[in-house]
Amino acid sequence: MSLKEQINISALPKHIAIIMDGNGRWAKNQGMMRAFGHENGTKSVKTVIETSVKLGVKYLTLYAFSTENWNRPKLEVNALMRLLVKSLKSELPLFHKEKVKLNVIGDIESLPSKAKKELNLALSETANYKDMVLTLALSYGSREELVKTFQEIADKVKNNLISPHLITEQVIKEHLYTKSMPDVDLLIRTSGEQRISNFLLWQIAYAELYFSPVLWPDFTAEHLYEAILNYQQRERRFGKTSEQIT
Ligand code: IPE
Ligand code: IPE
Ligand code: MG
């Protein structure tokens, strides 16, 4: 049986999030510039989107650029922003074909105006699609998201719109960039690094973590199937005992 056939379609992770890492090392391995790795990484992005929507995954969230990534050399940041514009243009037909709704999380205002323009176009053109929500984390940092959340809630307290003892987990959730999405079920990080790098700290509280040694430009549909199969072999107990679950 192929890997794909072994997947239990009725027990798919509803929300998969991916830290797409290893583009730079992939390029370096071939004696090329880092930007060459990012360019080749876009092929894996396309593969993962197509594969996820075909399987029936409802939410796919991709970490494309972190708040910390602004500290990279200007040349690399510019190359990434150009690639973002280019990819949004070239992937829009795929979003239409597969009925993928685009969503973005992060400090979008900090992006170059060209990127914002392409994003807004893709967001509005795909707003009514329902097959899968594809969220791009752009200039995203989980701590920045939490700071913004606490500021907004504090403002509401100050204006007597909410009283402090009514601030619940649900209220906090409703102020996050991810308010309309379920928590992450499966978090994948490629390239062998085993860290979270400021990604969705609140939302991964009970996610299953899967670390792949594969560098992002080498990540294929088969690798995604492997990750999902691995996820399906785990018992998610959410604090309960195994006996309570089965
Ligand atoms: C991930 O690949 C892409 C982004 C962070 C934008 P890297 O660029 O981090 O690649 P490595 O980790 O240096 O190999
Ligand atoms: C995390 O990768 C950010 C993205 C994949 C967009 P990094 O390569 O920036 O993470 P660190 O700095 O090595 O932890
Ligand atoms: Mg990296």
Key descriptive features of the protein:
246 residues; alpha/beta; Undecaprenyl pyrophosphate synthetase; 6-stranded parallel β-sheet; 6 strands; globular; binds 3-methylbut-3-enyl trihydrogen diphosphate; binds magnesium ion
**So what's the oligomer here?**
single chain
Bound molecules: 3-methylbut-3-enyl trihydrogen diphosphate, magnesium ion
Q: Supply the number of helical segments.
A: 9
Fraction of residues in helix: 40-55%
CATH superfamily: Decaprenyl diphosphate synthase-like
Describe this structure in words.
With 246 residues, the protein is α/β, with parallel strands linked by helices. The chain has one domain: 3-Layer(aba) Sandwich (Undecaprenyl pyrophosphate synthetase). The protein contains nine helices and six strands; from the N terminus they run αβααβαβαβααββαα. Helix 2 (23-29) packs across helix 3 (34-55) and helix 3 packs parallel to helix 4 (74-98). The chain starts with a helix and ends with a helix. 33% of the residues are buried. One 3-methylbut-3-enyl trihydrogen diphosphate (IPE) binds next to strand 2.
